[in-house]
Amino acid sequence: MRTTLTLDEDVRIELERACRDRNQKLRTVVNEALRAGLLALRSEPGHNLEPYRTQPVSLGRPRLPDLDDIAEVLAVAEGDDRR
Questions:
Q1: Which domain holds residue 22?
Q2: Of 2, 66, 67, 69, which has the fewest beta carbons less than 10 angstroms from its beta carbon?
Q3: Global model pTM greater than 0.70
Q4: In a domain, 58, yes or no
């Protein structure tokens, strides 16, 4: 496929450097770079990954006797002597 691309200056410089370093044509370097980039996009976090799961851990018994009264729980936790 033949197409025209407008490249940013930094991309042009990197492509020219890669062509020189590898002693390859621009077409070859661009195709390799695009393949690698597209593969990286496919493997980005969140793409076809299984959901993260945590393992439950027992924290032991509650230190407060009654967790139904939130005001009392807060008073004990904050050191409130109003009880």
A1: 9-42
A2: 2
A3: no
A4: no
